[in-house]
Amino acid sequence: MPGEIAIGIHDLSIASTEYVLTHATLAAQNGAPVGKYERGIGQLSMSVPALDEDIVTMAATAAAPIVERHGADRIRTVVFATETAVDQAKAAGIHVHSLLGLPSATRVVELKQACYGGAAGLQFAISLVHRDPAEQVLVIASDVSRYDLGSAGEATQGAAAVAMLVSAAPAVLRVEDPSGLFTADVMDFWRPNYRTTALVDGRESISAYLQAVEGTWKDYTERGGHPLGAFRAFCYHQPFTRMAHKAHHHLLNCCGREVDDAAVAHAVGHTTAYNAVIGNSYTASLFLALAALLDNADDLSEQAIGFLSYGSGAVAEFFAGRVVPGYRAHLRSAAHRAVVSRRHDIDYARYREIHEHAFPADGGHHPVPHETTGPFRLAGLSGHKRIYEPR
Ligand code: HMG
């Protein structure tokens, strides 16, 4: 019976970019009080990709240590979730498949629904493993969040990838049934095909997110999910880290609980460590929250963790995961901290130059300067084709 098999995250690895822009630098440029960023939205800095980095190089960098540790023999599917695709037709995961030398007997597909794509990928992977518990699925969530220079959204940019190996008898997290689901047709955040930056109605997006928290929780409890008190911590999608506090505050309110800041901080505290310095990584954000929780909290063995994925537009899902005893031996905490600490600070002028960079759409040969010190790079564009290579 499918329901009897424990399936979930067997391994998890994160990657980000070469560069980082601090909110202090942004505030000095645009005249905003830095406290608005650091306390108001809970962001200290944001990852900025070098010119030779993108969703593919981050994804391959995140996934490589997983393939190195477990091999690729059981990986039959690669699910690549992103909302900042590099091509309208070809799945970005095929470039990753090639860079990592995965077997040709693999299916590779790209998924999109704003920030919700990563959680969708995880759930779809679980269904595939139910069908054949001998198979493993590599789920990758990778995004670069970009808003217009000078816009309110600019302070909530960022970039990262998370790779997860989904398998039966997982070593890190068992994902449980049921899920609470919610969809509503709202235009809170979107990016038409002709734009490279997202459009957003900031206030509307926050209230749409909170409505989705309420909607998913209602469905989750109606389907027999755990009561609120059963959870040790909650991982929320974090477009900015204060959003996790707002979301949990709202959930407690909906459940008729007394809301106090200490209870909220206890529930989401450890989950914000990476997102606060990396920024919004869209599909990857929820799983950066999980990585931060696992890397920083005391032993969580057998504890239930709540997950709330929200993707503008809007689709949301709430589900529970249970931490597997012995999980700490499988974490990559030192490597994850290095992902954050290895980035180089850039000044506003350099950030602006990168933000404004665009490849000419003429099909010519356009090499990219060597900048990244990561293992994979975008070498350039030639004949409208993206060329990737190991560094
Ligand atoms: P804004 O207008 O720049 O900021 O927009 P604000 O005036 O609303 O201030 C932000 C907070 O800072 C407020 O706190 C202020 O009080 C506080 P709040 O009232 O919200 O609790 N503040 C200060 N605190 C301390 N010291 C000070 C100070 N000054 C002000 N001196 C906004 C902020 C987040 C709306 C903007 O950055 C934005 O539009 N970002 C993009 C949209 C976004 O992230 N929405 C989140 C929900 S939608 C979502 O999560 C999906 C998404 O990830 C996309 C996807 O699904 O793909 C975006």
TrEMBL record:
Entries under InterPro entries matching the protein: HMG_CoA_synt_C_dom, HMG_CoA_synth_N, HMG_CoA_synthase_prok, Thiolase-like
CDD domains per the UniProt record, alphabetical: init_cond_enzymes (cd00827)
Lineage: superkingdom: Bacteria
Limits of the Hydroxymethylglutaryl-coenzyme A synthase C-terminal domain: 180-252, 268-325
Keywords: Transferase
Domain Hydroxymethylglutaryl-coenzyme A synthase N-terminal: 7-167
The keyword Glycosyltransferase belongs to this UniProt entry's keyword annotation: no
Keyword Transit peptide: no
Family from the record: Belongs to the thiolase-like superfamily. HMG-CoA synthase family.
Protein name according to UniProt: Hydroxymethylglutaryl-CoA synthase
